[in-house]
Design a protein that fits this description.
mainly beta; M1 Pyruvate Kinase, Domain 3; 3-stranded antiparallel beta sheet
């Protein structure tokens, strides 16, 4: 059975420490990242993407399966794909292309949400990746996701 890699969560925050708003669809642009998200103007960390598998491993490790993925405060949640770990790698979700700029390092805010979450998110890039939008478009829940293979 083939698992379809797909977008299963979209969220944004209007300012630092603001609550996360979950959405069914959103526009992503090279200028503003996720429309309405305060981090969009930051070039290196314009968008953050979290893999469901990494999130599940982290919350299972601390025995907190009740925590919603938005606790991580990432913009996008994908399922069924290994997120690239090399800067410059390309990831396509729906019609939007993202360039990986680095690892999303877990911060102490994770421990504010649940004791031990910061350490549980540290191994194997469980905290996800930071990206910038290189080709904008619309994102919708259920959009397919895939990595563009680069030739060395």
């Amino acid at each position: 059975m083939t698992v379809k890699a797909e977008l299963i969560g979209i969220a944004r925050k209007s300012k630092s420490r603001a609550p996360m708003d979950s959405l069914d669809q959103v526009t992503a642009s090279t200028d503003l990242g996720i429309d309405g998200d305060y981090r969009g103007k930051l070039r290196r960390r314009q968008v953050t993407i979290l893999a469901e598998e990494g999130w599940q491993a982290a919350i299972n490790e601390i025995n907190r399966p009740d925590l919603p993925w938005t606790t991580r405060r990432a913009n996008l949640l994908v399922r069924g794909i290994d997120l690239p770990r090399e800067k410059g790698s390309k990831l396509v979700i729906g019609t939007v292309t993202f360039e990986i700029t680095g690892e999303t390092d877990p911060c102490s805010r994770m421990d504010d949400a649940a004791s031990g979450l910061m350490d549980a998110m540290t191994p194997d890039w469980r905290g996800g990746v930071t990206c910038r939008v290189t080709e904008g478009g619309e994102l919708r829940l259920g959009d397919s996701a895939f990595v563009i293979e680069t030739t060395g």
